[in-house]
Amino acid sequence: MNTFLKIATFSILISAPVVAHAQGSLKPPAAPAPTQKSLQEIWEKIEDLSEQNDHLKTEIDKLSESHNHQSNYLAALFQDQLPWENTLVDDEREAGLYSSLAFNSLGHPAISYLRFTRGDLYFAQFDGSEWTKTLVDPQNAGFHCSLAFNSNDQPAISYLENINKDLKYAEFNGSEWVRTRVDSEGNVGSFTSLKFSPNGAPAIAYLDTDSRRIKFAQRLRSVWETSFVEPKVEATGNPSFAFSPSGIPTIAYVDSISSTLRYAQYDGNKWIVDEILTAHPQSAASLAFGPNGKATIAVSEGTTEQLILTNPEALTANSMTVDSLDGSGPDISLVFDPYGHPSIAYTHSGTKSLRFARYDGSEWNIKTVYTSDESTIFYASLAYDLDGQPAISYYERTEGDLYLAWRKIPTKNRVPVVIRPPLQRQ
After folding, report:
1. In a 3-state reduction of DSSP, which class is residue 167?
2. Residue 209 to residues 165, 225, 238, 286: CA-CA distances in angstroms?
């Protein structure tokens, strides 16, 4: 019985038909055919990701470059003293008068200057390995020149053409120098000071030699307009011009009659002029704006012939003594370094030397950059490179040569700027 039952049960299970459950086909359904709209959405998404990737790369490169410049500056601070390298730029006889120094966006120095023997305006630029010197204007020109780079990173120079006693302006357009006569009313164009406004327009402060008045020229809609700053005040010369951070034209200069330092600001309709302090009648003023947006002026004080730094926008007199000039000439060049510290390059007649003074927040550190055994130094012009290091162009009268003194960070100590390739899509 039990045996039968077990066998029968087994037989029934084996012989019973298999009932299929309704569950549909096991083959997956076909994917929907792509439409033009879906393909377009995919490509737009890829383009968005590509733009985001490019933007991130740009930001990373900026941060990397900023970090490297900061590292170079800190490296310089921890070296006892970086040496000044004095390089001969032009040894043509009487080359280098009225030198004006500026750096382009690549960090290469450039200098405008006069070759006095022939009366030619020259432009010299260093490309990282050698200096190239170019004739800009051969018409007995180049006196009292001033150099600046425009928004396209092309050089421009204001200067006096000595034959006609006119103010001229030369700008490089990428292939050649284009020269323009800006002011030809009498004997004009001495002691030019060139700057570009925040919107990229050139402007020049200069001296009308006939009247001894300071004039101002600016190019508006391709037309140069000129005007007097103070029609009744005689100036020594050497006006120093700068745009404020908000784009206001400002000029510092010395009144030769009252021997006072004057500070002029243009309010859009007229010049507002303040007397700041007593100044040496033969002194030049040098104007710059600090990181706080306030104007600062370096000038030779009138009674003691001290080189002083003053803030004309302070409610009360706010000046500090930098150095004793000891009968120095008028060559003073004030610049704020990239870290907000005022620094001055100036010639010191008593010791026949070129000096550099930098304020570290508590005191002035003064160094002798170059000393001449037989003659004096003229036409000092100060600028900073991309690593925050100073450079000074100057004229050495003994041999009549143009030099550049540059406190460079040695190549082996520099932190290279790393440019990363674009991120690759997987």
Report:
1. strand
2. 9, 18, 11, 20
List pLDDT tens digits, range 250-292.
Answer: 999 988 888 889 999 999 899 999 998 888 777 778 999 999 8
Question: Is 417 within a domain?
Answer: no
CB atoms within 10 A of CB 2: 6
Find the CATH number of the domain harbouring 203: 2.120.10.10
Max CA pair span of the chain: 143
- Domain assignment present for residue 205? The answer is yes
Q: 341-369: string of b/e by CB count within 10 Å (b at 16+)?
A: bbbbbbbbeeebbbbbbbbeeeebeeeeb
Within-domain flag for 83: no
| DSSP reduced 3-state for 310 | strand
The average confidence (pLDDT) of the chain is 82
CA-to-CA separations, 55 to 170, 287, 423, in angstroms, rounded: 37, 38, 11
Is 48 in a helix, a strand, or coil?
helix
DSSP letters of 364-418?
A: EEEEEEEE-SSS-EEEEEEEE-TTS-EEEEEEETTTTEEEEEE-PPPGGG--PPP
Counted domains in the chain: 1
* H helix runs in 78-211, sequence order: none
State the residue range of the domain holding 183.
95-351
Whether 79 maps to a domain, the answer reads no
**Cβ–Cβ under 8 Å, residues 85 and 410:** no
Instruction: Give dist(CA 19, CA 302) in Å, integer.
Output: 117
Residue 356 and residue 344 in contact, taking contact as beta carbons nearer than 8 Å:
yes
Q: pTM (2 decimals)? A: 0.78
Distance CA 378, CA 381 (A): 9
Predicted confidence at residue 21, as pLDDT, reads 44
Tokens representing 301?
Answer: 């004080």
* Phi and psi torsions of 127, nearest 5°: -100, 10
pLDDT recorded at residue 260: 87
Element (H, E) at 47: helix 36-77
DSSP 8-state secondary structure symbol assigned to residue 301: B
Q: Which of 216, 248, 217, 220 is nearest to 235 (CA)?
A: 216
Can you tell me the distance from the alpha carbon of 253 to that of 239, in angstroms, rounded to the nearest whole number? 5
CA 389 to chain centre: 12
Q: How many CB atoms lie within 10 A of CB 234?
A: 15
Residues 284, 237 contacting (CB under 8 angstroms): yes
- Are 386 and 392 a contacting pair, CB within 8 Å? no
